[in-house]
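User: what does the whole thing look like in 3D?
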Amino acid sequence: MLFRYELEGGNFSKAGYASSEIKKTLKQLSVDPKVIKRIVVALYEAEVNVVAHAWKGEVLADVEADQITLTLNDEGPGIPDIPLAMQEGYSTASSAVREMGFGAGMGLPNMKKNVDELHIESRIGVGTNVRMITRFTNEGG
Ligand SMILES: Nc1ncnc2c1ncn2[C@@H]1O[C@H](COP(=O)(O)OP(=O)(O)OP(=O)(O)O)[C@@H](O)[C@H]1O
Ligand SMILES: [Mg+2]
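Assistant: Here's the predicted 3D structure for the full assembly of 141 residues, as structure tokens:
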């Protein structure tokens, strides 16, 4: 099953929609609630990153019997130094974004912790692609 959701830079009311829809879908498929929770946390952080740091983007969710692949493609400034961005506490969030309660620099590290695979590709001034894979069977024995 393939799902697609759109995201707009600066529109925080839309961040969280894809993760709540995916949560419902995975519940219907009887995926382990602990695994669902981790996927939802990672996807929410990824959604917020597009809204906070990019201009526009999309979420593609490919739900298969034994795994989910979440791809976030955005048009935005890109990430110049991905290893630096992955460090806990590193953030370039604007003061407006910080006022909304984001910008602790914990999103990417949390995504990494909560999925089986995290792949990031970025081109400066063009955009960023984030791909997260979680297998349902490997988690929790
Ligand atoms: N999609 C993106 N486009 C451009 N830059 C990004 C994107 N995602 C992350 N970044 C860069 O990586 C940094 C770290 O991201 P991370 O999600 O860890 O923290 P944050 O978004 O700044 O704060 P938090 O997620 O804790 O609210 C961001 O501050 C930003 O510089
Ligand atoms: Mg973030």
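In plain terms: Residues 45, 49-50, 52-54, 74, 76-79, 85, 90-93, 102-108, 128 surround adenosine-5'-triphosphate (ligand 1) (CB under 6 Å). The mean pLDDT is 95.
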